[in-house]
Amino acid sequence: MAYSDFTLSDLEEKFGVTNERKELIFQSSPIKPTQWLQKELLDSKEMPIKSEKARSEWIVVPILKELRNLNAKFFTIYSGDNLVGDKEKGLQGECDFILSKDTKSYDISVPIFHIVEAKRNDLEEGVRQCSAQLVGAKKYNEKKGIQMEKLFGCTTTGDVWQFIEFSDKLYIDNNKYYLSEIDSLLGVFQSIVDYYKSTLK
Fold first, then answer.
1. String of DSSP letters for 100-154
2. Total-model pTM
3. Helix 61-70 vs helix 35-44: angle between axes, to the nearest 10 degrees?
4. Percent of the chain at pLDDT above 90?
């Protein structure tokens, strides 16, 4: 199996990970994008974004670069890398984007956040895949002796973003955030980065 093959029921059956939909509360304040990001997103509106690849290049990557620069390069961005969480149970595969605490390592060191591009603009499918990747990230970290109370992820169509928190179970946010409200979206991302800054030394 690959991450994209997992359902939420599979995660419960194979790993005992249950899920719940609820409103996630982020202690966030809106963040105005820099002029650079505003221009990047404005330019993206002129492009024929027809594929996940185009979406990542024109929308997702600029947002992640903005966030990384706002946080003194606290994390590294991995694109298209494989992450093996539990090979025997099929919890492995290529990930669209992994944010890992920056340890200057060439390989993924401490995966803290996953972003899944919703295939065919299907957020539900993206939620399933992102959830599997978060379980995989926890297994990956545990193999390295790293215990984390929470991991976060999101799935996106580029225009719509939906977040997931993985702690005692998978919490799938009832709220959705929109590219047209980029200030609020950046604020949520920043609150998550702030959480990791306070818990990872």
1. EE--S-SS--EEEEEEEE-GGG-HHHHHHHHHHHHHHHHHHHHHTT---S-EEEE
2. 0.94
3. 170
4. 84
Q: Which domains are delineated in the chain?
A: 3-199 (3.90.1570)
pLDDT band at 181 (very low <50, low <70, confident <90, very high): very high
Pair of tokens at residue 120: 């065919």
Which tens digit of pLDDT belongs to each residue from 134-148? 999 999 999 999 999
